[in-house]
Amino acid sequence: MNISKSPWLLHYDGSSCNGCDIEVLACTTPVYDVERFGVVNTGNPKHADIFLITGGINSQNREVVKQLYSQMPDPKVVVAVGICACDGGIFKECYNILGGVDTVIPVDIYVPGCAAKPESIIDGVVKAVALLDKKRAAMKAGKAPVAQKED
Amino acid sequence: MAENIIIPISPDSLLEEVLKMKNSECRLVQICSTRTQDGYELSYSFGKDYDLYNLRFTIGEDAQIPSITNIYPTAFLYENEIHDLFGVQIKMISVDYQGTLYRTDKKTPFK
Amino acid sequence: MSKRSIVPFGPHHPVLPEPIHLDLVLEDEKVVEAVPSIGFIHRGLEKLVEKKDFNEYVYVAERICGICSFMHGMGYCESVEHVMGVEVPPRAKYLRTIWCEMSRLHSHLLWLGLLADAFGFESLFMQSWRMREKILDMFETSTGGRVIFSVNKIGGVMKDMDADMLKEFVKILNGMEKDLRELSRTFLENKAVNSRLQGVGLLTKQQAHDLGAVGPFMRASGIVRDTRRMGYAAYSDLEFETITSDVGDCYARTDVRIKELFQSIDIIRQAVEKIPDSEIAVPVKGFPDGEYFMRVEQPRGEAVYYVKGNGTKFLDRVRVRTPTFANLPGMLETLKGAQLADVPILILTIDPCISCTER
What is the CATH number of the domain that holds C225? Predict the structure, then answer.
């Protein structure tokens, strides 16, 4: 059994403009088709190994993101997709944006772009799969899979 | 080209003018608030076919205006929006979110 | 006595790519009332006019929504152009029209896919999105971007499409038309699909008018109105019918949108034939002073852009009334009396765009 052979994705739209969301969805459809790597898009956080977040964080979705993250089983990897998820992007100066995803939960992989291209999203997912293996090995060795961030 | 008309009215005659729009079978297009130096400039836009009629008036910062949800029930979203974002005080909205439609960190950010 | 309960729907829900929350008041399985709560993706980008000047704001306007990005950029540009009295060169108008209709194609195909996914027909979802990729490839060839292009600017557009490229695009679209016919047969004639769509979520003509509905959602209920008729961009030179249906159920909404797909292809063909040679942008001098209400027909319906300038490079106010915002009351109306299991389909048939709505 090796989860990196079939990692499951959970996708949440933070406060993105939709551009990155539809690109994430486009990854799962023909032409890009990440499912050929065994990746399955799921809606249930308890099934998921990789958490893809698009868009910045505001105080409304802050708790939602935290809760989804806490419901995912270890080991887990967080991928911030698009510049808004990385640091707030063009909306950074908006009154209702707190910043990137890393203001709430630890982010492992940053995928830049506005909107992020499917090629780079897939690249991010492939990197996430490698990291998943590493975290799993660390867990087996009795170490914590991820340093919990305090807020 | 369709018409794009701005009709200046007084704040007191709002309900009366809106009722006229309703009776001439206009639909509510939008309600917009713009912050001015010492208050707000409000535009109520109504559409008929391709024409757009904008009722326009200005009010002071502390003024209260009546809700038009009795005439146009769908106005509740617009009215809650300008209440939440601008702090315009509106009386008797049919579905009043009491400032919880947008739940922004900063209260009335456009004020 | 039936039991009353309140079921929370969302914000994270598998059927919706975007977060919206509804409190559904149920009597057994029947919805009696739905109260929306929005604000999960509210960014406050209308306020950014204070920090970005009116030229930079084009990039913010394009990011109101990634699906109708081009039309948001264009609507904003056209309203500023109206305020400043700028006449856009004819070729730029045609280019805008072509990109607009391509956006409509991609948006409607995206919606068809999501609808198929909502009633559990996954391979139909994949088919729709496979066809959509062809449109995105055309965007990438002509602008460099797949979903957000940044080709609009005040006074025209930044990129041109040469005759060869346009010819190639028409060829691709002609090929697509055949695939589309096949796809639409499944949506409109398949028994299993029909059983999920027909008679579900009825909205009468009177209700659509009273609730201020816009776009295909409204046209499916029999109101004849298409903001493209106002003749912005190059639409006044092109011929097209306003597509409507009298039924007003989910099937009618699907039908209207599918017919609009073929119409968009036709409009692009006409535009490619008629496109004149000229500059693609004019230099813009000075700052906007004045106000204008601009209306644009987006894939989801009529959007209103209000721009108010004060003679400096920073605008006083930009306000966008997006189609989904206008369609929310209509959606709540169709939810009343629906079965809980139909709720995802009813929400989807207004083609909700939440990031538009909340800005």
Answer: 1.10.645.10
